[in-house]
What does this fold into?
Amino acid sequence: MATDTSSQTESDRSPIPPVVWRLLSNRRVVIGLVFLVPMFVMAVLGETIAPHDPTNTNVQMRYDSPGGKFLLGTDHLGRDLLSRIIVGARTTLLIGFGSIALALAGGVPIGLAAGYAKGRTDELLMRLMDIVISIPTLLLGLLILAVLSSNVINVTLAIGIVYAPRIARVTRSATLSASEESYVMAAQARGESNTHILFREILPNVTSPIVVEGSVRVGYAIMIGTSLSFLGLGTGPPTPDWGFMIAEARDHIFQTPWFLVWPSLALLLTVMATNLIGDGLRDVLDPKETGDSR
Amino acid sequence: MNYVYLLKRLVYMLAAVLAVSSAVFAITTLVPGNVANYILGTGATEERVAQVEADLGLDRPVHVQYLDFVGGVLTLDFGESFVSGQPVSEMIWPRLIRTLQLAAVAMTISIVTAIPLGIVAAAKRDTIVDQLVTTTSYIGLSVPSFVSATLLLLLFTSPPLELFPRGGYVALKNGVIPWLHHLLLPAIAMNTVILAYVLRQTRSSMVETLESEYIRTARLKGVAESKVLFGHAFRNGLLPTVTVLALNFGWMMGAVVIIEEIFAYPGVGEMIIQAVDSRDLPVLQAAILVPTIAFIIANFVADIVYTLLDPRITLGE
It folds into this structure.
């Protein structure tokens, strides 16, 4: 097992190349990338590499088995499954990574402010975060989307709101100890502004736990995003989307099992790949941290 | 002094209930696109909107509506359904009981399978057994419940292996076997992620415990390995799992939406989907709040259990 990361020392804060190298020699990260990079290529290139138009219906070719003109077969409307998987990667990854980016943008400043200010501000901000955390993730996502109309942006926003407090929590606990360091005192003595101290002095020193937390959450965010679109609260029919494909496939399973198999497999591999990378990042950047809470 | 802690924790729990009610109120009432538009859909005339708002008391000042809502939650009165006119509390209780039964069976399955497997993996660390268990749980962690539920439904409810009914619910008073027969498949489906999660947590905390000083001492004293495992390590190693189980309860309260929809199980989760589809706001608010409050109570219970299991911890000072 990969226990070779324990020899890490405190000194490697700034140099980026050694970190990248250590990441690339981590087995989990490499396996994760092997699966995730093709997904990203599919998401970016989409229609240009799709063999067919993903929305083109063809009644004569419904429920086609894999291997013929359509490499992975067709669905109940005769649409090419491979093309729909390829283009659907975009929505899935956009929601997964986009929502975590939003959660970071919201959660990191809150966590920094709470951890640095301490006292009442800290108490108030963290109790607010606790409220959001105590609503089960999928329920909170559902509630927000029930009120907003569902489209890619709102789904991303809803999941971002779900995870921002969790990011804030991790940022805060790292900031609590970092703000006691001498370089922070020095900056205070120099009369630097709070913004400067938070984002220039403290933030660069608390990135590891934040990066780890964010990357671990991507897998969950993808699961929630596809779950919501499975429930019909996703992007809506014309855009191919893995969660909605699985929902549609349920009614046609006896005509073609492949309709269900391919998007499920694509989703499983993507979530597994992001989990592997997240755990690999934790091994390398933050080896002491073992558990995580939802 | 333990009672002081208990009391404090109770007050905190009540505050949490108040807070989440406020959050649900805020999201449903203050978000752009107001309630009347939500009910009528976009493109409703202004007169219709005004009329609906008056009917529902939404033309009152926000703080009045808020106090009304939170007061309602505390007295377990969630108003009436926009669709059926029935009191929401009457609609929700039988469903909550069914959902809790599903969660209880799912939780039992995860406890009786994941904890022993986690202990075995920790005891046989770095052997083929450990790797097999760890890898399988890793895959399990990546399967969203709507995928596992759909696959299980296909495999075990249709002709070659027609072992379970396709869905629905049979009350416990009609016999344990039919009750469990209906519950088992949804409960298993709900478990893929949770089981893997509990297993990993159990394994890692047991590994940590097994490496600690007092275990080494016990081994050096020549205590039998099984006694080391179950007599010495078990209790401490399982403490974090208690917290994890409470967290998982929260996860389940979300997952029931998916599982109940797929298995046509008449619980709170199915109610949420119906409320979203029919834009039935009071039902939606209650159906989101009630499982959330259940989760808050579960955390409270977990805290108490934690202190009972570990006498070293005297929280609350």
Chain A touches chain B through 46 residues (CB under 8 Å).
